[in-house]
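Question:
Write out your own:
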Amino acid sequence: MNAAIDLMDRPASTLTMPFLAADVGGTYARVALVQASPGREVEVLAYRKLACADFPGLPELLESFVQAEARRGVRRCVLACAGHLEGDEVLNDNSVWPIHLAQLRQALGFDDVAALNDLEALGYALDGSPDSGAQLLCGPDIHADGPILVIGPGTGLGAAVRLPAAAGGHVLATEAGQTDYAPHSMRERELLAHLAPQGGYVAFERIVSGPGLLTLYTTLCALRKEPPRLATPEAVTAAAEACSDAQAVEAAEIFCASLGSFAGSLAMTFMSTGGVYLAGGFLHSMNALLGRSAFEQRFLHGRSVRAFLSRVPVRVTEHGRKGVLGAARWYLRRHEPSQVAAGRVLAGQSTG
């Protein structure tokens, strides 16, 4: 998903002015005031992580940031959002409020608003260079040139692929989290039958996400005819780590194993020789559980493609500021003078 207001008629110097970059998730929004530094890199002037539930809408959230951090009017904004763009609206079932680009332009007086998928933005932040905040989960500790797969289980489940530099370094957004969940074990088939007793579609996102972990836990409690004691994904994670709740332990095991299947299937699909990054604060907190789970076994799939997948490094990385940095890089890349000039040429050809 991406969209932007046309900047072809604006002087290139406007791109050196500070602008907002925001990574808007289902729970938190990370907002930064950024500007282009020499070489079109991104300089962060101010940064905040805000809880979405504390604001009635995205305009109010961004306005609070501008009032607190911007010393002068900010005229441009780029949003990294979970979901995809349809017309003027970002569609995301996990958002706490609707997001309309025209509403943002009017409410905050922006000249330009751009939007792209949040995992797509994260892909632009992961450029293939070593990530100091990433921890190797399985596979060789290498940084090879090739497609990089980014997977983000959080409030939802997102995925994107960064193409290698030789192919332009573009990032492809996907809706892979909405693909059909495929059970691997008899226990997973039992869970799926409980979630969809009449059959039908169950998305991977319903299992492999923060809410999905809670769904696994409550479903396991129901299957054992026991009342659930835990009410949040964080509580389930903590109980699984402490081994203080049998259903929480099993839920975490199934979550990690299912994530392994999902990641392995996508790594095969995109031949992700550049590696796989599992991103997000929620997942980062489960790193110890992932390390002792069946993730690697399920990632490798045990088929003829195992030799390929065994050469793919899988790392867990903290989301942090990467989403806003990636969104800002995408915005600058999209509107750099060479691309603006190319746009004018293409526009002239299409009307000639």
